[in-house]
Amino acid sequence: MTIPHLIGVHPAWLPPEAFSAIGSRRTLVQADESAPARTVRAEVADACARHGGAIAGPGEAADLVLALTSAGPLPPAAQAVAGPEIGAEGFLLARQDGVTVVLADDPAGLLYGFFEVVRQGAAAFGASRPAEAHRPALRRRMLDHWDNIDVHPVMGQVERGYSGGSIFWRDGVQHEDLSRVRAYARLLAATGINAVGINNVNVHATEARLLTDRLGEVAAIAAEFRPYGIRVHLSVNFASPVALGGLDTADPLDERVREWWARTTGRVYAVIPDFGGYVVKADSEGQPGPFAYGRSHADGANVLADALAPHGGVVHWRAFVYNHRQDWRDRSTDRARAAHDHFAPLDGQFRDNAILQVKHGPLDFQTREPVSPVIGAMPNTRLAVELQVTQEYTGQQRHVCYLAPMWSEVLGFRFRGPDGRAVADVTTSGGLVAVSNVGDDPYWTGHPLAQANLYAFGRLAWQPGLDPAAVLDEWIGLTFPVGQDGDAERLRGTLHELMDGSWRTYERYTAPLGVCFMVRPGHHYGPDVDGYEYTQWGTYHFADRDGIGVDRTRATGTGYTGQYPAPWSEVYESLAECPDELLLFFHHVPYGHVLHSGTTVVQHIYDAHFAGAEEAAAMRARWAELDGTKTVDAALHGRVSELLDEQVRSAEEWRDQVNTYFLRKSGVPDAHGRRIH
């Protein structure tokens, strides 16, 4: 096993300097011959070769001991911290008598423990401390790639990808050299990710064949992820029995269909024994599904779950199901209601290895949405919450927008008030899933600072209660190792100033008060207040001369508020109690309506958009102060500078279009007399 060190590709949060604390010491590895354990040995050897350390043999003195509880008699340092069962993927970390110890029950836990020592750096070899237990809060921590094999005529090589092409395929063929996939797996394992879906949930004709005659490509990718403890999953077409198997039906209750899925899945596991399972988007935005046969989504998911069960696999069944041919004239229809209407009545009908994958909000990864009520409505179903690391509606990785504060709010939301279970608790067995933001760009994520979102997703999936600012601080320390000639605290302070509040800055200069969308149709970048207002997609704001917002109340609107349990059903129903940041998601109000902040809706729109644009300009100015210093590589500084120029331009465009639109709609001038066109 060789450790991938790519030329011309940014090392992200695993630069060689991050391994100096380990690589300059003596390390003993006591483990089995599994793939992750071999990886730990290889990582230690690579670090020692770079930084002058050594690998200790059995019985020899060591500064660091990495040991499996099952790998023979434990060295004394490990015996001293051994105790009750640690558990799958978990590890103990201790520092006693000058020795740092990582102890795990399984190889994946040992790998994660190794990367925790990397993350802590010299601090892992400091003062003595008793054994600390580290265990993942969520069982499955997964990234979904929306990569295509063929270049799609509209969506390109990667749908909603803003970082170049796919790291798996290019122009219809798999990359001959997959070393970048191995390097990617390494980055993910360092954050705690343990599963990856490798292809687009919108499964086109060529991609459907990954299940059959192109299965060898999936196996080749799985071989690159396996050393880092990551299982590969595959998005499949629900109608595969017809498209690939020659059947005349994909009816999930047809015995021929059930047999086809069982045979096909068996062949997959014969080639990839540790295959993770399937991801399915069905009856959504033109994708085939069980509705065509008068069957439920539980029927559809269960036929795949039954095929996977003998092999230990799971099916992720996406709950993103809605009518995308709505009539904007009909205010009784509501896209936000759709997932709950379709799936809540099916609670308890899904197999144990079927995971219902629910977007964190009821619409579509917007800058501000309430938490989806589906997450709190299905206690007898395994649920996974889906986030979007790729910034489709949050600046498309041309804008700095650190998303961990948003995700932290979602994961900490409690459906039944302070005493209820948090979203993170609901998804313990199902896990956390996100759409990946990685491509073949030299900086992985296009915008170098967007790497922080990928890092933060993995860390929050492992431990949802982490402070987003602390996670960002970890990422800064790893990604920008500043030497003696650099000013580490200056760089750290600058990045926190740019990134800590960047999600709320983006929110200020885009769609106000939870109204959602207002983006240009199709590519979803930049402002277009009425872009979707009269379309079939059901993403409306209903602004007129008198007011703005969507009435989703039970009393006079679509009834969506009734999908929440108390107290939220009453909070969102009440105009007086509804939080300002979600007001226009739940209510249609006059422009003169006074917010809890004391300002009117229309004045808030003006103020927020002016403030957001000013904050974007301040971010650019703050970053420019680092130009010519030794704190940041010149090429990286230049890339970020170019993107901040675009962010400032775009923020001003948002400000001017949105403010002008509402001035003309409302006829209410800005109280501060600022220029609105």
UniProtKB/TrEMBL annotation:
GO terms for cellular component: extracellular region. Residues 132-444 form the Glycosyl hydrolase family 67 catalytic domain. InterPro entries: A-glucoronidase_C_sf, GH, Glyco_hydro_67_aGlcAse, Glyco_hydro_67_C, Glyco_hydro_67_cat, Hex-like_dom2. The keyword Endoplasmic reticulum does not apply. Keywords: Carbohydrate metabolism, Glycosidase, Hydrolase, Polysaccharide degradation, Xylan degradation. Residues 445-674 form the Glycosyl hydrolase family 67 C-terminal domain. GO terms for biological process: xylan catabolic process. It comes from the Bacteria. GO terms for molecular function: alpha-glucuronidase activity; xylan alpha-1,2-glucuronosidase activity. PANTHER family: ALPHA-GLUCURONIDASE A (PTHR39207). Belongs to the glycosyl hydrolase 67 family. This is Alpha-glucuronidase.
